[in-house]
Amino acid sequence: MTSRVSQLPASGTLVPAGEWAQAAFLAGDPDEPCLWMGAAVDRRELRRLVAQQQAELASAGLRPAGTVALQLPPSLAFVASLLAAWNLGAQVSLLDHRLARSEIDRALERLAPQVVVTAGQVTSAPMAGYARAQPVTAARPGGRPAQTPHALIQLSSGSTGPSKVIARTAADLLRELDRYQQLAEYPRRGERIVLLASIVHVLGLVGGLLHSLHAGVQLAFPDRLTGDGIRAAIAASPQPTMVLGVPFHAELLAAVPNPVASLTRMVVAGELVRPGVPEAFTAGYGVPLGTMYGMTEVGMIATDLSGQHRPAVAPAPGMALRVEDGELLVQAAASPYIGLVDPGRWSGGWLHTKDAGTMDAATGLVTILGRLDSQVSIGGLKVDLTEVEQSLCALPQVISAVVAYDGAIEAYLVLADGAAAADVETAMTDVIAPYKRPRRLHVLAALPRTATGKIVRARAVLQAAATAASTVQT
Length: 474
Known about the structure:
CATH topology of the largest domain: Rossmann fold
Radius of gyration: 22 Å
Mean pLDDT: 90
CATH architecture of the largest domain: 3-Layer(aba) Sandwich
Shape: globular
Helix content: 25-40%
Largest sheet: 14 strands, mixed
Number of domains: 4
CATH class of the largest domain: Alpha Beta
Strand content: 25-35%
Number of helices: 12
């Protein structure tokens, strides 16, 4: 399928008219199965659901260049509401259904949507990969129409500080879809994706849902997000199938391997993969564990879908990257932020990722080293806290870890059953140089996470989580 960026209307309303969404995501054979949520959903049924929800949104007062916030779990209701809003030419804000009530209220105050869609009756089993939800559409007094030409508004995870309001145009989304279609190893018509990542966030939304609808790939949601549930979803069809998720899902599958004939690869993104997981996954399933690097601000940036370059990734088609003062920068024509004027985030056509990285001048491959603020100086020696964190995570005694710096290196750890902080102290002497070793170990029952599941790295939150836990001085 060729790019539809050039087909976007040139003017009138702030947000493009809905023809772009209709052409990109709903066109095609009406009998073609496009989604699987407990049963197959073909394009004819999806169009019916979209038309039904479009009428509901219109009756609530949503108009071209209007604004709507969706706060729905992964469901047909979410898909239909998103496409219906875009068909109306509206600006859509996505709120994760797992947010606390106070977080939702703050987000709605910031975004000021005219219409809000929430879930009324929800049917969902524990660990379900999707829900059956009845959308409830309501006008929101005091909401404002779109102030910018963006089609999609998302909030950053808030794992390292306050959430940022991130905006993307229809053209931005279509350009990213073109990048996906230029990846030879990414699923295309006649193949499937089993989606484990959230469709509210950029990986699951664009790399999963929108790519699948755009390229004619069937998108399947597992009944349960367990090892057996994921394998059952893969085995449900003989079509070549890729699994798309986050590193946790790869660890879950690698822990109890059971090969499935239709599985071609798994691809993960969102966080660095723990040492040893790619090798264990490939040994257990006979297929590669690929990785992607991206940001909500621009979507997919770089990939290594076959795991050939690990730990490096190759820039995605059409993406220009460079490293400046140890920071990875991505070319971006305009700032993706609303209400944020900060040259430290975007300036001169370049987006500052705030991630540390290196680039091989000969190959163009990029190695992501972690957050830029993870580089600290200890006695005049440079220490990469992400490297220390990865070394700790490779120890059999450690389930997960976050390494921070507050005058000294400290680690927040979740330990394997039967392990103690003293065991970690002993084990790390063989793998971490003395000047890099954490001076304080905080053993926690679980690392603090955002409502969306990302590990929180804000030091104040980590310290608060450790106040009730045992602290061992090393």
